[in-house]
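Open question from group meeting: does this chain pack into something compact, or does most of it stay loose? Before anyone orders reagents, we agreed to write out a predicted structure and look at it together. Recording both the input and the output here so the notebook holds the full record.
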Amino acid sequence: MHLPDPAIPRLLLPGVLALLIAASVALPATAQDGATLTGRVLDAATGAPLPGANVFLAHTLRGTSTDSAGVYRITGVAPGAYELVVSVVGYQDQALPLDVRPADRLLTQDVRLAPAVYELDAVEVTARPPRRWRQRYAEFEALFLGPSPNAAQTEILNPYVLDFERSNLGNVLTATAAAPLQIENHALGYRLTFQLERFEWDRKARLLTYSGRPRFEEMTPQSPEEAARWAEARAQTYLGSFRHLLRALAQGRVEQEHFQMMEDFTRERTDIETDAYYVTDVIEVKPITRDDVLFPRETPGAFGLSFDGFLRVVYTQHRHDWRYRRDWKPDEQVSWLKMNTLLATIYEDGYLFPPGALQVHGAMADERVADLLPREYAPAPEDPDER
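Structure tokens returned:
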């Protein structure tokens, strides 16, 4: 099955409509499980092999480089829907939709890359970036990495590949990257290679739109204490998140995972950063169940998602020891979901297709790049004695 290109995801700042970058969880982590994906990366014009090409499955830890014959091999691929991303210097990147079925053991996918065409502008060499660039980068970094405590321990190692423009009377900031962003997240213990496809911040509309394809690599802890800190931070980042909710929905564990869902008959919110965030905006709330919004699809392990209006989601467990907003109640976190398409698909591992199928308001919309976890991440089982 070949899937169309995903819709562009959007992320929300306070008071902003959002579509979250979709991700998923709980894939088998051992290379012995799952399918093997192999093939060759070739020059589209000459058919010559391209050694050293980067080949990875977006949002996962699964990736490799081609050998001298242009051959790649990725093992341990669990069933599900993916994007196979291929890149090499001097050629146009390519992202191919891929569907791995439970019976698949060996999949072959050759990729042909077209040479990149560059338009070279005049280059001004300076000892340090100009002040305007530094100001715009600081704004980009805060928006891109997000407001969570993880962002303070997350660093973009090659910011110099970024370029910025302002338009619409200075209200819209756009960013482009000449190469993938290299990111180290010392809060969660991951190194990311992030292919930025689009970044746009409309300050007047308070709307942030970005899209990209990250590859994850595990960082090596320097001590058992650091490994324990990473494990705890990953668990805290996952619990109550958008990804946690999708997985709970697909697996029929909404209540067990401490979520509550309600149909929320409310007006369109133009400013959720108010003291009326919880109560006075709500006209009527009706409790709903998983069966009200989800139904089985033809593909095993896939479910259709569809609902009208706003879906109010409350996570009743305290996720963080801090608040994103002044009006959050300490014992719950509230988000609102709204369909951006007529129908979406959720897989058992929590993968949402298309990624831009849902608008997200509230708590879950504050999740950004500093809070990303790879698809392989699975939380430890809950201890019954701690319930």
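Observations to bring back to the group:
Confidence is low (pLDDT under 50) at residues 1-31, 269-282, 322-328.
The first helix runs from residue 131 to 145.
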